[in-house]
Structure formats: C-alpha cells, structure tokens
Amino acid sequence: MTSSTLHPRKPFVARGSNIRRCDSCLMPHHRCICEYRVRVNAQARFWLLTHRKEVYKPTNTGRLILDTIEGSEVFEWSRTEPEAGFVEQLQSEMFDPYIVFPEAPDYSDRMVEFERKPGREPVFIVLDGTWRQARRMFRHSRYLDRIPVIEPRTTRQTRYDLRTQVESHHLCTAEVAAAMLEQIGDDASAAVLDAYFQVFNEYYHASRRTRPMKNLDAPKELLALARDVLDLAANRPG
C-alpha cells in the first residue's frame, strides 16, 4: 500500500460500519471535514508504517498527516516482508529517515538528535497502531534496526479521546507528527496539522453524540488563513 491515503482491502465491519461515510475523509457524511483540509510543504515528510488492523478504522489519525503534509506516504507494516517501495526509499540518498520512538537503554546507541543534512530531506517514520502494536512493530522488524531513532521531546498531553488511552503522554499518530514538526522548528506546519486534528476530533465526537462540539473558531480560522497564504504564494508572479 503505497498510495497517500488509506484504502481498506475489505469492508470496515466494526462499530460504526453501517454509517454512510465520505469516501475521502471517512467521516460520517453529515460531519465531513474535507472543506478544512489544507496541504502544506513542511520541512519534513512522514512515512507511516501502519498496522493492518489500523487500516480499517475511521478513528485512525494517520490519514490526517497524509491529508496535510505534502509527500507523506503510508505503507502497511509486515514483520518480515516490508513493501518494496518502502525499502527502496529507505535506501535512497534523497532521504534522511528517522524512526520516531521513545528512548530505552537497550537501543541507546541508536538514539540521535535531529540534524539537517544538505541535499537530504528529513523523513520521520511513525509506527501507526496502538501503543502495544507499535512496540511490537519496533522490536520485531529487523529491517528497521539500522535506522536512527529520535524521541519526541514534548510536554504535550494527548487530546485524542476517541479511544481509551493508557497514558496521557501516549500521543496519537497525528499528535506525534505535530510534535516532531515543532521539534525541528516548523511551527507553522505543526499548527496547521494540529488544527485539522482538533476539527477531526471534535467532529467525530459530535457524530457519535458523545458531547457537543467545543468552540472550533480558532482552528477553522487557522486552516482558512493557511489556505489563503498558500493560494497567494501559488499565484505570485515569478
């Protein structure tokens, strides 16, 4: 699966499978968020290694990254047979890949700080699944062993509450990406992704009728402003 969007290989049959959804954002039709989508050329791109069970979940936030950050891609994770396109890009001199994962003593030699390398584009590899799935993906994928690991350095507490979280510091996939963009100094792209995530989170709750939508004026205005800035840049002569 090397497209820039998540496309399930079989029908989604879990909770909420009988709801009519937008084919693009996968939200219920009456809560579609496509009008708030803004794509930005960030200072890094993301490769999502997505667990097969995540592919089918409309609550997955990885696709928010794909919707927002230009050049980002998704690959379905396999323990022993990674997608050829993913392996090929790992070996390319065009990219400077890092696995985003918390530090631990047994792989301390792989931990690095971010450093820009001339002629190479930074890529953050995010393991897209539950925390338990992500740990297994990290520990059991031998083809990832030589890739440097970078830890998100953030004081963020998760705002993602569409699923039960074990710990408040266990950020969802979109929050991890926003934290990494902030970490490399790309606050503008982080803010756009963060705003889109907030709209997604609140609209999803509203679709479930689990709580009324909070005031979303600020994130909506930020996304509108970002779109206007990009349109101006695209139409600027020369």
Spatial gap, N to C terminus: 37 Å
Order of helices and strands: EHEHEEHEHHH
Number of domains: 1
Describe the strand arrangement of the main beta sheet, using strand numbers.
2-1-4-3-5
Which percent range describes the beta-strand content?
5-15%
Number of helices, where a helix is a run of at least 4 consecutive DSSP H or I residues: 6
Poorly predicted runs: none
Structural class: alpha/beta
Measured as a percent range, the helix fraction is 25-40%
Shape: globular
* Number of E-type strands: 5
Q: Mind summarizing the main beta sheet?
A: 5 strands, parallel
Q: Rg, please?
A: 18 Å
User: Whole-number average pLDDT?
Assistant: 88
Q: Can you characterise this structure?
A:
- By secondary structure, this protein is of the alpha/beta class.
- It contains 6 helices and 5 strands; from the N terminus they run βαβαββαβααα.
- Helix 4 packs antiparallel against helix 5 and helix 5 crosses helix 6.
- The termini are far apart.
- The model has no long low-confidence stretch (mean pLDDT 88).
Question: How do you describe this structure in short?
Answer:
With 238 residues, this protein is of the alpha/beta class. It is built from 6 helices and 5 strands, in the order βαβαββαβααα.
